[in-house]
Design goal:
- The protein is α/β, with parallel strands linked by helices and 499 residues long.
- The protein folds into three domains: 106 residues, Nucleotidyltransferase, domain 5 (2-Layer Sandwich), CATH 3.30.420; 162 residues, 2-Layer Sandwich (Nucleotidyltransferase, domain 5); 142 residues, Orthogonal Bundle (Hypothetical protein af1432).
- The chain has a six-stranded mixed β-sheet, sandwiched between helices. The chain has a five-stranded mixed β-sheet with strand order 3-2-1-4-5, with helices on both faces.
Length: 499
């Protein structure tokens, strides 16, 4: 990446939406602009876990303002991620369909562990490099992430469904602060976080850091009241709890350093933070400068080169874990990439490479379900991908891979896929043909074969075969004839000439 390139990260959190813009300079990203809006989507989930219309509109309005600022940015310069609220929302696709258009860039809903990994990357890149073992805690609106790492490597990470917005709504619904409410909220938070005791016990880390939201707000208040700057201590938390109880309500809370947008969620945030301190035996926690959005920015750098792209490592790890045939996977991958390059002529080279890489991942993983079932391995493989923890991947990316794995063989009508998504269908066609050509589990002879794709006047693939090819490879020719029939039941058609 060239020095001076602008990069942007959009964080759709449960309490706030944030936009961070930075300039790349010799391996570092230096902030040029930061925008934050308190959207509070986290309290817009109804009893059925659907976002209310008001909550969606607040999000869309904010993203419209962010989108105006990002006008002129290329797709490779921007990444937007959404966290717990949109992980939970049953109608998230309704929100995202419009949100993607308004922002002008795709929004990735990331898993809890992926959120934790990115948070650690953001914190670690903003700290001096050292050999210390770091505990990083991030208390968000509806989830809390915990990570233990060293240097830039996250070693243990988890996400728990407890946060400042959710706990404030449940235990301080009218903004009333009582000792009993705080005790109930802390006990409930401990019950959710209890399994963290063994994974994040004090002997596994040297220094505790707190990232973003709640911990930053508590640190600001304590600093303004004369406590050590940038440090949250157990004594400081006791002092703050006393001040909250004496205020009796969020509306009556008058305390230096407390921002107005934090008053409504400070009760839940303090309760969760006290639970973390008490469960893990923390005496003090340093407020970190880095956060999720910074991790997203640095992850953009990693994605630029496949060798550093964590997603490639995750794919390899899944392939090894499920004992796939590496030789066959590589063979199918090579053929699929070759066919895709033939059929795509209008894209820029960078976009073609990006799509080929994802097609290659699908090829590497197309047999991961074979250890479970021989006949239905494609179905089991798709299930694995839809439910796997795969660092580096957003949930929609994994689902797209699962669709390719599910659809690489058999009937196509089983796919709940958008057949208007031409690039997905081209990837699917190339993967299915690669599997056909490699059915004998040896390198196929593709000399003289050419695959073309046309979308006007109809959606049509044409595979041209050299004279004599079908006589030389009768089983492949038969499978291609079956493939023609399979595509007749979709909006797309396949024509094979020379059979």
């Amino acid at each position: 990446m060239q020095n001076g390139t602008l990069l942007a990260a959009v964080d759709l959190g449960s309490n706030s939406f944030r936009l961070e813009i930075g300039r790349f300079d010799r391996g570092q990203i230096n902030r040029t602009e930061y925008l934050k809006e308190t959207v509070r989507q986290g309290n817009g989930l109804d009893a059925d876990r659907n976002l209310t219309q008001d909550a969606m509109q607040r999000g869309w309005d904010c993203l419209a303002r962010f989108g105006e600022r990002l006008a002129g940015f290329k797709k490779s310069q921007v990444r937007a991620v959404a966290t717990q609220t949109l992980r939970e929302a049953r109608n998230r696709e309704e929100f995202l369909a419009k949100a993607n258009r308004i922002l002008g860039f795709p929004i990735d809903v990331i898993s809890g562990r992926e959120e934790a990994r990115l948070i650690y990357q953001g914190v670690a890149h903003m700290l001096p490099q050292s050999d210390e073992r770091r505990l990083v805690v991030d208390i968000g609106g509806r989830s809390t992430e915990m990570i233990v790492g060293k240097g830039l490597d996250a070693l243990n990470m988890e996400s728990y469904r407890v946060g400042s917005v959710a706990w404030s709504m449940k235990y301080f619904p009218d903004g009333q602060f009582t000792s009993r409410a705080f005790n109930m909220a802390e006990v409930a938070a401990k019950a959710v976080l209890e399994e963290a005791i063994n994974a994040y016990e004090a002997k596994s880390w040297d220094v505790a850091y707190g990232s973003s939201g709640t911990i930053g707000a508590v640190s600001d208040v304590l600093t303004a009241s004369g406590w050590a700057a940038g440090i949250v201590t157990r004594e400081g938390l006791d002092w703050l709890l006393d001040r909250l109880v004496k205020a009796q309500s969020a509306d009556r809370l008058k305390i230096e350093g407390m921002k107005d947008d934090r008053r409504a969620v400070i009760g839940g945030g303090v309760s969760v933070l006290r639970a973390v301190f008490n469960l893990l035996g923390i005496e003090k926690m340093e407020a970190a400068q880095g956060a999720l959005r910074h991790g997203v920015l640095y992850d953009l750098l990693d994605r630029e080169k496949d060798i550093a792209d964590l997603r490639s490592s995750s794919v390899q790890r899944l392939a090894v874990r499920f004992d796939t045939d590496a030789v066959q996977s590589a063979r199918v991958s090579r053929v699929a990439r070759q066919l895709f390059k033939m059929s795509v002529t209008e894209l820029q080279p960078a976009e073609t490479d990006r799509l080929q890489r994802k097609l290659e991942w699908a090829a590497q993983l197309h047999e991961i379900g074979s250890q479970i079932s021989h006949s239905d391995y494609h179905k089991h493989g798709a299930y694995i991908l839809d439910n796997a923890d795969a660092p580096g991947f957003a949930l929609p990316e994994l689902h797209r891979l699962s669709l390719l794995v599910l659809g690489h063989r058999g009937k196509l009508r089983k796919l709940e896929a958008d057949f208007e998504d031409r690039l997905l269908i081209q990837q699917l066609m190339c993967l299915r043909m690669a599997v056909i050509f490699c059915h004998a589990r040896r390198d196929p002879d593709l000399k003289g074969l050419q695959l073309e794709c046309a979308v006007s006047p109809g959606k049509l693939f044409v595979l041209n075969c050299r004279p004599g090819w079908s006589e030389a490879f009768p089983q492949s020719a038969y499978l291609l004839q079956e493939e023609v029939v399979a595509w007749q039941k979709t909006p797309w058609s396949l024509v094979v000439s020379g059979l």
